[in-house]
Amino acid sequence: MAANIEVYTTDPCTFCLAAKNLLKKRGLEWTEHLVFGGTPEWDAMIARTGGKSVPQIVIDDEVIGGFPQLQAYDKEGKLSELNAG
Fold first, then answer.
1. pLDDT tens figures, 2-19
2. Which residues contact 9 (CB under 8 A, 6 or more apart)?
C-alpha cells in the first residue's frame, strides 16, 4: 500500500521545490497543500504539524518536518522503503 504523503507548501519557496523534487526522485506521490501565512489553512498546518515554516511534510500521519528533516529521513533509507512497500 502506498504511503500517504502530504506536503504543505507556499509559492515561491525554494525548499518546498527541493522537497517535492526529492520525493519525485524517489518515485513517490504526494498531496500538496498550498498555504499562505495568516490564512486558516496556515493555522491548520501549524496546529497539525507544530511547524511555522514551509515545507512541512507528513508521511502516514507522522510529522517529518521541513526539508532538512526530509533529507535526513531519506539518508536513513526511509523514502526508498516507502517506494518498495
1. 889 999 999 999 999 999
2. 16, 19, 20, 32, 33, 34, 35, 54, 55
Stretch 52-73: mean pLDDT, rounded? Answer: 97
Q: How far apart are CA 20 and CA 17, in angstroms?
A: 5
Q: How far apart are CA 41 and CA 69, in angstroms?
A: 22
Q: Which H/E stretch holds residue 8?
A: strand 5-9
**Closest among 84, 80, 79, 75 to 7, alpha carbons compared:** 79
Task: Report the amino acid identity of residue 16.
Answer: C
Q: Considering the entire predicted model, what is its pTM?
A: 0.93
